[in-house]
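**Sequence with structure:**
===
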Amino acid sequence: MESTISYQVVKLDDHSQNDILNSLNIALNGFHSNSNEHVLKIVIFLDPKLENSSFKKSIIQSIHSCFQDAVPAVTIIYQKPLDAYLTLEITQVKSDISQIRFKQWKGINYAIYTNSLASYYYFGCVHSVYENDAEHSASKVFDKIHKMLLHENLDWEHVVRQWNYIENITGFANDTQNYQAFNEARYSAWKSYKWQNGYPAATGIGAGAGGIAIDLIAVKEMNNSSVISLPISNPIQIDAHKYSTNEIVCSESEPEKKHTPKFERAKALQFDNFHSIYISGTAAILGEKSEAIHSSSKQIEITIENIEKLISNENLIKAGLSKLSKGNLQLLRIYIKQTKDLETIKKRINQAYPNIPAIYTQADICRDNLLVEVEGVYHI
């Protein structure tokens, strides 16, 4: 069952990089030596200044040395952790090792977990540095991912969760905003699909380096499986893929490039008696308008309200889910534009969601006037 999947956050902040690497090796060996749980994916949050450092290379070497022929999906995100020097997000599954396969395709590590209902594909990051512009780079990434999906007899409509990391997300190149250029590439890659079960849940967030980077989770149901994939809308937000052109940053030279962001506010996987909900990146947007544009304290309140409305049983039943009980958040990521807002936002998150593994990083949000964005995983 999907409920066997869990998450841990590891934060390392020793006195030196060597100390951190030693602590990292101890942590990795602890995960690897646990015969009851197996690591499917590791996400590393790293200061962009360390993009080309020997420290980064040592982290990758540590992962490969530890896991050897069972290397999980690995993603490095160039966002500075705000409450540690190095932060890791670990996705693991409580399962017999025979249900898990670790594979690699053209340098991309990924893990496949299969149970009686479905196969879950955790893909590591695919990236492309900026060449001509963000649209060109994003198109290369989408093309490579599509080939990787086809290699596993999957297609885009199997993707349930996607993360899109965009260097200088609100910056411009050739008269086009980088985020909008990414949206154009996504539209081109996906326009031939029907998306009968809705788009993936997604986050489009800034990064300090790395060009365009995407990682994702895909799910393929077994024949005659009872697994249902459902898009979840928010009653107080317009679906992002239905935004008006008023909220699209169009290019003056190419005004026809005004396609909306193709993602759902959340995506639910419904099993017989269990539900897993991927909460997309959520910010202080009501309807389609940014709110409280000068106040991080007000924005985090609106963001929490949006999340609560989104995952309320009333809203989930409206979306088509059934057999609901009280749910629990499993994991949070909190992206903060200005480091000075960390304590205000962290205090409020701890009040609203105590004892939930949470990651805090510095990142630009997809709109210049947004100061914080929150995503998560919710189990019922």
Summary: Residues 2-379 form a domain with the 60s Ribosomal Protein L30; Chain: A; fold (CATH 3.30.1330.40). The CA atoms of residues 211 and 267 lie 26 Å apart.
